[in-house]
Design a protein that fits this description.
Distance between the termini: 21 Å
Strand content: 5-15%
Radius of gyration: 22 Å
Oligomer: single chain
Organism: Gossypium stocksii
CATH class of the largest domain: Alpha Beta
Largest sheet: 8 strands, mixed
Number of domains: 2
InterPro entries: UDP_glucos_trans
CATH superfamily of the largest domain: Glycogen Phosphorylase B
Pfam family, one: UDPGT
Family: Belongs to the UDP-glycosyltransferase family.
Number of strands: 14
CATH architecture of the largest domain: 3-Layer(aba) Sandwich
Helix content: 40-55%
Protein name: UDP-glycosyltransferase 89C1-like
Low-confidence stretches: 6-13, 221-226
Structural class: alpha/beta
Strand order of the largest sheet: 1-4-3-2-5-6-7-8
Number of helices: 18
Length: 457
């Protein structure tokens, strides 16, 4: 392994090490949490691999010198394509391989901790890395806090029915319950009951916090755009197009996150529904994965001639989209989505009606929560390989742009609740204060901690 790049050492107190999982739905909210912790006075070292270093740019711009990158080369793994360091390039079945590859950094991290005069006093790591980060913290005799980018209902379901999980996930979630804290990107008013059950039945301690929806970082006027990459339509043109829409809540936004890639048949059904409905729309189209499953080589193919036929009716954006900015625009009324947790939270904050197509992972639990329990979403179809009926989907698109739907009313009510939770004095704001206080307390007696770490090594 080549030489590790590190740009500094921590301050005298409140210094923690953050270990993210390299998928957009994991690392972006963890960076938002890191931003909040830095605002509350902590000093942070973030371990990344070279191709994920760009995710730290907003933090470095806002908080230097209190945030430092710790860059390790991405370890090789026989099941991973050469050069891939991020989940967005791979199907979800490759997630355990990414985790196992990163687990090879266990001993280099121990060596790095040993070499520091003032090492971090705690580790904050993604829950899917728990199979090795909890042991790493134990080896170093420092606390490990798990960041949970999934919704609480899904995590409660998984740990309550471990037989439902594949062995890799069963180990990760079991190990996470041995950590010294769990930080959920959710809020008490939405999932407080499940938070309490996890605290009482599984965590066995009081350090279970709901701190969401985590506000995104913003660096200058273009801050929300800097999180992405290449795109076929510049963000300012997207916003100009939305500004030209005269009717509020009349645009359907369609996007399935960074992990889901639709098949040719699914793309054709969505395209046909848009044409048949006549609604104004923005469609975010993900580029095909580098490694598709099941020999599927027909991903993300926009039907021939579709863009010409809908010219003026909508936008098809290939690559990154300024999703949160789109959802918050007055012209957008509904969001056709896989119901990933980050996307769902962004829609909640924007007060947008969700049209749910759950496909994998926690999507089904999120849809059950928001559609069945809260009533702020509409079920459209389900399953990774299902193909929606274009005529039914067209009708749903049209109905989703009408103002008087009960689900839209409930979505607006949920928006107010979420915004109250994250404002100063709200439940999530207070929880963030408690997380920062707990992490800071771990570094209060640094001299004694240093003796303990060195004796354990």
């Amino acid at each position: 392994m080549s030489e590790v790049k590190y740009s500094g050492t921590g301050a005298a107190g409140g210094h923690i090490c953050i270990i993210p999982f390299p998928a957009c739905g994991h690392i972006l909210p963890l960076m938002d949490l890191t931003h909040q912790l830095l605002l509350r006075g902590l000093t942070v070292t973030i371990m990344v691999t070279p191709k994920n270093l760009s995710y730290l740019n907003p933090l470095l711009a806002l908080h230097s010198p209190n945030v430092k990158p710790l860059v390790f080369p991405f370890p090789s793994h026989p099941s991973l394509p050469h050069g891939v360091e991020q989940m967005q390039d791979l199907p979800i079945s490759f997630l355990p391989h990414i985790v196992n590859a990163l687990g090879k950094l266990y001993h280099p991290l121990v060596q790095w901790f040993r070499a520091q005069q003032s090492p971090p006093a705690a580790i904050l790591s993604d829950i899917v890395l728990s199979s090795w980060t909890v042991n790493l913290s134990s080896h170093l005799n420092i606390p490990n806090i798990c960041f949970v980018p999934f919704n609480v209902a899904a995590v409660y379901f998984w740990i309550s029915t471990p037989s439902f999980l594949l062995p890799f996930y069963r180990e990760a979630f079991t190990m996470s319950m041995q950590s010294q804290g769990l930080v959920f990107n959710s809020f008490k008013e939405l999932e407080g009951t499940k938070l309490g059950l996890i605290k009482e039945k599984f965590a066995k301690h009081c350090r279970v916090w709901g701190v969401g929806p985590l506000p995104p970082m913003k660096v200058g006027d273009e801050g929300l755009y800097e999180r992405g990459g290449a795109t076929s339509i510049p963000p300012d043109q997207v916003i100009s197009w939305l500004d030209s829409c005269k009717v509020d809540k009349s645009v359907v936004y369609i996007g399935f996150g960074t992990q889901i890639t639709l098949t040719k048949h699914q793309m054709k059904a969505v395209a046909s529904a848009l044409e048949e409905s006549g609604v104004r729309f923005i469609w975010a189209v993900k580029e095909p994965m580098k490694r598709a499953e099941d020999g599927d080589d027909d991903q993300s193919l926009i039907p021939h001639g579709f863009e010409d036929r809908v010219k003026g009716q909508g936008l098809v954006i290939k690559g990154w989209v300024p999703q949160l900015t789109i959802l918050k625009h007055r012209a957008v009324g509904s969001y056709f989505t896989h119901c990933g947790w980050n996307s769902a939270l962004e829609a909640i904050v924007a007060g947008v009606l969700l049209l749910a197509w759950p496909m994998q992972a926690d999507h089904f639990q999120i849809t059950r929560l928001l559609a069945d329990e809260v009533g702020a979403a509409i079920r459209v179809c389900k399953g990774l390989r299902s193909v929606p009926d274009a005529t039914i989907l067209a009708r749903i698109f049209v109905e989703s742009t009408t103002v008087g739907q009960p689900q839209r009313v409930r979505a607006m009510e949920l928006q107010k609740t979420a915004l109250n939770a994250i404002k100063e004095g709200g439940s999530s704001y207070q929880a963030l204060d408690k997380v920062a206080k707990a992490l800071t307390s771990f570094g209060c007696n640094r001299t004694e901690m240093m003796k303990t770490i060195r004796s354990s090594l």
